[in-house]
C-alpha cells in the first residue's frame, strides 16, 4: 500500500513538473510549456516554421543560420562522386538480385527431401546432397548481401552523401 502511494505521488509530481517546463518557440521568443506543445501536436500543429524545439534550454538557431547543407536545385548537375556511388549501389543490388534469382531457380530445380520425424539414412544423405548443391548459390547470395550491407559504411567513410547508396 505504501509503495503504491509513493509511486502515485512520484508520477503525479513528474507529470505536473513536465507540464510546466517552459519551452521557447524558435524565432518568436514566446514561452510555451510542454503541455502546449503536446496539445499542438495532438491537434496536428507541427510547431514553429523555420525553427526547432529546444527542451534543454539551448538557444535556438535562426532559420537563416542553419548549418544544414542546402539541397541542390532540380536542374543542378550531378557530380562525379555521386555518379560513382550510385553506380556502385546499382551494381551491388543487381548482383544481389541475380544471386537470389539463381538461388531460387536452383532450389526449385532440386527435389525437396522430406526427412520427417523419423529420418532414415537415405533421406538424410539426399538432404545433405541437396544442401551441398545449393551451397555455391547460398554463398553467392550471402556475399552479395554482405557487399550491399557494407556499401553505406564505405560511402560514409569516403564522404559520400547517404542518399547516393540507398
Number of helices: 4
- Radius of gyration, in Å, reads 29 Å
**What separation lies between the terminal Cα atoms?**
55 Å
**Globular, elongated, flat, extended or rod-shaped: what is the shape?**
elongated
Detail the poorly predicted runs.
64-70
Number of domains: 2
Number-wise, the strands total 2
Secondary structure: helix percent = 55-70%
Compute the average pLDDT. Answer: 74
Compressed to H and E, one letter per element, the order equals HEEHHH
Structure described in brief:
This protein is mainly α. The protein is 58% helix and 4% strand. It has a two-stranded antiparallel sheet with strand order 1-2.
Question: What does this protein structure show overall?
Answer:
About 4% of the residues have low confidence. This protein is mainly alpha-helical. It is built from four helices and two strands. The longest helix is centred in the C-terminal third of the chain and has 38 residues. A hairpin with a 6-residue loop joins β1 and β2. α3 runs antiparallel to α4. The protein folds into two domains: 56 residues, no CATH class; 86 residues.
Amino acid at each position: 500500500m505504501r509503495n503504491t502511494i509513493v509511486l502515485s505521488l512520484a508520477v503525479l509530481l513528474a507529470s505536473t513538473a513536465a507540464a510546466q517546463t517552459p519551452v521557447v518557440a524558435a524565432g518568436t521568443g514566446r514561452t510555451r510549456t510542454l503541455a502546449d506543445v503536446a496539445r499542438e501536436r495532438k491537434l496536428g500543429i507541427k510547431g514553429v516554421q523555420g525553427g526547432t524545439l529546444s527542451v534543454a534550454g539551448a538557444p535556438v538557431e535562426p532559420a537563416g543560420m542553419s548549418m544544414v547543407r542546402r539541397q541542390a536545385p532540380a536542374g543542378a548537375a550531378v557530380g562525379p562522386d555521386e555518379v560513382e556511388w550510385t553506380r556502385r549501389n546499382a551494381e551491388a543490388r543487381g548482383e544481389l538480385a541475380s544471386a537470389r534469382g539463381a538461388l531460387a531457380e536452383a532450389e526449385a530445380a532440386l527435389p525437396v527431401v522430406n526427412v520427417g520425424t523419423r529420418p532414415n539414412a537415405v533421406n538424410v544423405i539426399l538432404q545433405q546432397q541437396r544442401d551441398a548443391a545449393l551451397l555455391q548459390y547460398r554463398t553467392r547470395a550471402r556475399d552479395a548481401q554482405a557487399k550491399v550491407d557494407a556499401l553505406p559504411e564505405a560511402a560514409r567513410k569516403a564522404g559520400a552523401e547517404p542518399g547516393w547508396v540507398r
